[in-house]
Amino acid sequence: MNNRQLFLQHVAQTSDAPLALEMKEAKGMYIYGVDGKEYLDMIAGISVCNVGHCHPDVVKAIQGQAASYMHLIVYGEFIQSPQVAYATYLSNLLPNPLNCVYFTNSGSEATEGAMKLAKRYTGRHEIIAFKNSYHGSTQGSLSIMGDEYWRNAYRPLLPGIHHLDYNAFEALEAINHKTACVIAESVQAEAGVKAPSKDWMQALRKRCDETGTLLILDEIQCGFGRNGTLWAFEQYGIVPDVLLLGKALGAGMPMGAFIADKEIMWSLTNQPVLGHITTFGGHPVACAAGLAGAKALIEGKYIDAVNSKKELLLKHLKHPAIKDIRAVGLMVAVEFESFNLNKKVIDQCIADGLITDWFLFAANCLRLVPPLIISEDEIMKACSIITKAIDKVLTP
Ligand code: PMP
Predict the structure, then answer these.
(1) In this predicted model, what pLDDT tens digit does every residue of 115-130 receive, in sequence order?
(2) Which of 48, 69, 156, 164 has a CA positioned 20 to 30 A from the CA of residue 5?
(3) Does CATH number 3.90.1150.10 belong to domain 3-54+301-394?
(4) With contact defined as beta carbons under 8 Å apart, do 184 and 221 qualify?
């Protein structure tokens, strides 16, 4: 059996149509197949590799830390300098009072930790989330996922959860003195890039303040510069009580985090029971990689160029078959009339050397979330491949 057959036989699949392309290596904006074929990466591992694949600073940091130590003990027992360095760096980039970082293995685990934190801190158990949201795949984060069809497959779910309409003012009245936390994506990603209005976000913040409810913002996919500002919440002029990060946080290594004020975070440390335990969360190698990636992103001033790159992409990505394009920074959904057409365009793009896919709750939308280091020439190249791919699939 070849590797493809062994993969399909022995590696559990998440869908019945895995791409199953075998890749050899990846550098910067490109991924290379074992057959030597070059692919322009327009999804960055789904918003993970902001500074591209195998950034030399990230590779060096991983090698250096792996040679010093990898795993010593479960989370928080020893002082591990890579965790201290990255948490301090993040705290300095964040507004007050987001000054205390709990590192996890994944975005889903960050969501779990934040919900537990809200319960301990407020003594309440009701949680409000939004329709069409995605916060992870563990049982708790599935319970708050905003897709009923999906949730139904995993009942019984966590009790006390309510789903409101995103970006709807009247929905906010459901937040009351029983609500432990509201959890919302700063921009809904898997819904197909849906940004709320600034007024709504401010009303949400106000309602949480009035009711003593913690506001948790999930920036696992939309944060870390992708929006054109370092944190998406900056665009709304608000600060959450708890921020969720993941994906780009580890610059390619597995990592998530929930971040809050030290005083709030302390409620996880208080007796009688420990708050959250993780063996590998905050892995020293992931912290070293994440810090190197974050420094490369900020010192390279890539975030400053996100919005002009977005404009260039919108200017050149034009085709009559495109029904709508929603873009928040370099997080772009290209909408077609059906999943069927979108899937054909995606397959054609891959055949023509460009990696893209669709969104979980917006399968008729093609996803463009490239590494933020993408050049103007590469944007033009991507637009040309995509528009030609649409022509090819529409030509009888
Ligand atoms: N929240 C959002 C907004 C996400 O996009 C994701 C991942 N797609 C998660 C949470 C879960 O992260 P992970 O897959 O690392 O558990």
Answers:
(1) 999 999 999 999 999 9
(2) 48
(3) yes
(4) no
